[in-house]
Specification:
The structure holds two protein chains of two kinds.
Chain A (H helix, E strand, L loop, with lengths): L1 H21 L2 H56 L5 H6 L8 E6 L2 E3 L11 H8 L4 E7 L2 E10 L4 E8 L1 H51 L13 H50 L7 H31 L8 E4 H11 L7 E3 L7 E4 L1 H18 L3 E9 L2 E8 L34 H11 L3 E6 L7 E8 L23
Parallel strand pairs in A: 7-9
Antiparallel strand pairs in A: 1-2, 1-5, 3-4, 4-5, 6-8, 9-10, 10-12, 11-12
Chain B lengths: L5 E5 L3 H13 L3 E5 L2 H10 L4 E5 L7 H11 L4 E5 L6 H7 L4 E4 L4 H12 L12 E3 L2 E4 L4 E4 L2 E3 L3 H12 L7 H9 L7 H15 L9 E4 L3 E4 L2
Parallel strand pairs in B: 1-2, 1-3, 3-4, 4-5
Antiparallel strand pairs in B: 6-7, 7-8, 8-9, 10-11
The chains are: A alpha+beta, B alpha/beta.
């Protein structure tokens, strides 16, 4: 339980980290620009809206109040003369747009334009009734209105005038909308500016990143085009310098091993030719000289193999190992490889399904793979006891078995490392190479897109089994016409 | 092998040259030596050899140039010696006119086998006829002559043998391995590039348009065939 919790936490942390890294510099710049533009424009809009609104409202209010006072005075003057029709006086009042008069006289309410006394705020009524002029904003029927109340004690009346702010509100809301739209546009402009700035700023970084990927992929001569920018120019220059240094270093290392091997090949040519001359005269030699010649022959062969191995591995290191592919029948290839190996008598068993398996292969390399595995069995496993080929869905497996002590679990990866010798090391038989044999097997096999591993043989048999797994060619071609003399087809055993 | 077959060995390293000469002499060849490209051309001019063995890395005129110069004078079999089998050297050497190559360090016995294979005569056509026709192409194996539209075409011995092998079963596809075995005498381990470069060379000589060959046709994944 605790384990699962721990792993959940770890996973969440991983997810969080991934999310963090997914939110890249470009997105952050863009967000910063957009947020900045939004905050600034929203602030400006709010301030502008507030100022405009306050101004307009105050202006509108003072107009309404003045109008109400004017009307109140006119009413008072009119009502002083007796026998006046109150309604017609009220009708003749000039009111601001939407202004509605309400007159209360001796408890009688005159409200010719719909707004009645009950609809006025009670607080306002009380204040005015007690003889104080007042004004108050209130909302009626969803509209903001201003009510101005003027007591007219000389005619025992109170005059109210209600003014609608509908148009003002309308103007203010369209102003608000425009400001909001402006803020939105500014935000979008900010975001796109951020995007373009970040893209411009990051383009050299993207170039550098693409170049780094290319270099990691083996194209060592990749460089970034220089740019005219004091800050990023340095980055590009340093990157290119680094790439050049790296390329030079890799090429020099690769060249060194390769040059050394080539230099060694010339004296080896003299040695093998001279040995052949000597060998042709071995019957004329005293016994001691013959014994020395045998040693010479064996070790020149070993030395040649070492130089070949070194040269081969240096090609892998320099990244210049290239496949020279042919479509080959794997059974045929293995048969020939065994024939050419140091132990041509190893029996080969080809499973029925693998007889016609065709593999895209570099023949030279695969022959070396088989030869190295047989050589390895000879050096560490007392000699190979059998080679088998089986087809396993889409792949073909070549197994080289020996009856030696086997390979410990702990060593199963290590044996494929360079200069590692199996646990049976110490016995440097004539077949022991320089310690690159299995490392080369792995390099060759992975160059073919295959795998190699070692396992123990079945429970009742001691020994190791080295297995090479290769992909079978996608389109098995028909076997080439053998022609009249006919190259023999794969046989079931070598 | 005819007695007294003469090999011109071009190698700048004296010790290699001497050891190889002794080993080749043990194999029964007569060996002339040249220490440089200039020396080799002078000697070849003086006394043409039956086979030329050229190290590709020579001071002065390099092996490729020597190869081309000798090829202009003669269709003698040329074997190049290279320290690098994996590079373009092999293909470049074959394109310069070499017939085969060995990689240092080589066994002189193996080199002798290669030379013997190159000196073999072309087999007569399987049909036993004296001449074979492929469209405008006429091959006379016994005379070692090829004509296109009546004009004689000059082929090296190896190119001619390759053509005769393809002609021995017209229309039949030969794999690279089969051609390596029949023309160069290789067992399973020959280098397919030998066939490819020779086919290319052959096409430039016998085809009207080497880029769109009508006679020596590639059969993808299988090999080559000759057709009318």
């Amino acid at each position: 339980m605790a384990d699962s919790t721990a792993s959940t936490v770890a996973r969440e942390r991983r997810v969080a980290r991934r999310r963090g890294s997914a939110f890249g510099l470009r997105a952050r710049v863009l967000t910063a620009f957009a947020t900045g533009a939004l905050v600034l424009s929203a602030l400006l809009a709010a301030v502008a809206y507030g100022l405009v609104r306050e101004n307009l409202v105050r202006q509108r209010e003072s107009v309404a109040v003045n109008q109400a006072y004017l009307n109140a005075r006119y009413l008072r003057d009119s009502l002083r003369s007796t026998g006046v029709d109150v309604s017609s006086v009220l009708d003749s009042l000039t009111t601001t747009d939407g202004g509605t008069p309400v007159l209360v006289r001796n408890g009688v309410v005159f409200a010719p334009l719909g707004v009645g006394l009950e609809e006025l705020p009670p607080q306002l009524r009380t204040t005015v009734t007690s003889g104080q002029p007042a004004r108050m904003r209130f909302t009626l029927d969803g509209e903001s209105r201003l009510a101005v109340g003027v007591p007219l004690p000389s005619v025992q009346a109170s005059y109210f005038e209600v003014t609608s702010f509908r148009e003002l509100e309308g103007a203010l809301s369209s102003l608000g909308l425009s400001l909001l739209a402006a803020a939105l546009v500014t935000t979008i402009a900010g975001a796109s500016l951020g995007a373009s700035v970040s893209r411009r700023v990051l383009r050299p970084l993207a170039d550098v990143s693409a170049a780094a990927v290319a270099i990691a992929g083996g194209r060592l001569d990749t460089r970034v085009a220089s740019i005219d920018d004091a800050d990023l120019g340095t980055l590009v220059t340093s990157f290119n310098d680094m790439a050049s240094a790296l390329q030079e270093r890799i090429e020099r290392d690769g060249r060194f091993a390769s040059d050394v091997s080539h230099e060694l090949r010339s004296p080896l040519t003299t040695l093998s030719a001279s040995i052949q001359v000597l060998d042709a005269r071995r019957e004329e030699m005293p016994e001691r000289a013959r014994a020395a010649l045998d040693l010479l022959v064996a070790d020149v062969a070993r030395f040649s193999a070492m130089v070949e191995d070194l040269l081969e591995i240096s090609r892998f290191d320099a990244g210049v190992a290239r496949l020279d592919l042919d479509e080959v029948r794997i059974a045929e290839l293995v048969m020939h490889a065994i024939d050419a190996s140091t132990d041509a008598d190893v029996p080969l068993v080809v499973a029925a399904g693998a007889v016609d398996c065709v593999v895209e292969a570099d023949k030279r390399r695969l022959v070396r793979v088989i030869a190295n595995l047989i050589g390895n069995a000879e050096a560490h496993g007392g000699g190979a006891v059998g080679v088998s080929i089986v087809a396993v869905d889409g792949h073909v497996r070549i197994a080289v078995e020996d009856a030696g002590p086997g390979v410990d679990d702990a060593d199963r990866e290590r044996v494929f490392e360079r200069f590692s010798r199996g646990s049976a090391a110490g016995s440097r038989g004539a077949g022991a190479g320089v310690g690159l044999g299995l490392a080369l097997v792995r390099e060759h096999v992975s160059l073919h897109g295959g795998r190699v591993w070692v396992e123990n043989r079945d429970a009742d048999e001691a020994g190791a089994r080295f297995v090479v797994e290769l992909p079978v060619a996608s389109e098995p071609t028909t076997a080439p016409d053998p022609g009249p003399a006919g190259v023999p087809a794969a046989q079931a055993s070598a | 092998m005819p007695v007294g077959t003469r090999i011109l060995s071009v190698e700048d390293d004296e010790r290699i040259r001497t050891a190889v000469r002794m080993a080749l002499e043990d194999e029964g060849w007569v060996v002339d030596e040249a220490a440089s490209g200039e020396d080799a051309l002078a000697r070849f001019d003086e006394r043409p050899a039956d086979v030329v063995l050229i190290d590709l890395m020579l001071p002065g005129i390099d092996g490729f140039a020597v190869c081309r110069s000798i090829r202009r004078l003669s269709d003698v079999p040329i074997v190049m010696v290279t320290a690098r089998a994996d590079t373009h050297d092999v293909v470049a050497g074959l394109e310069a006119g070499a017939d085969d190559y060995v990689t240092k360090p080589f066994q002189p016995k193996e080199l002798s086998a290669r030379i013997r294979a190159l000196l073999r005569r072309a087999r007569p056509a399987a049909s036993g006829r004296m001449q074979v026709h492929f469209g405008d192409l006429e091959i006379v194996p016994d005379e070692g002559v090829v004509r296109r539209a009546g004009d004689e075409i000059h082929l090296t011995k190896t190119e001619f043998r390759l053509l005769c092998e393809l002609a021995s079963l017209p229309g039949r596809v030969f794999s690279r391995e089969q051609l390596l075995e029949r023309v160069w005498g290789y067992d399973y381990f020959g280098d397919g590039r030998l066939v490819d470069v020779h086919v290319r060379r052959l096409r430039t000589k016998i085809e009207a348009d080497a880029a769109a060959p009508r006679h020596v046709v590639t059969v993808r994944g299988l090999g080559y065939k000759l057709q009318a």
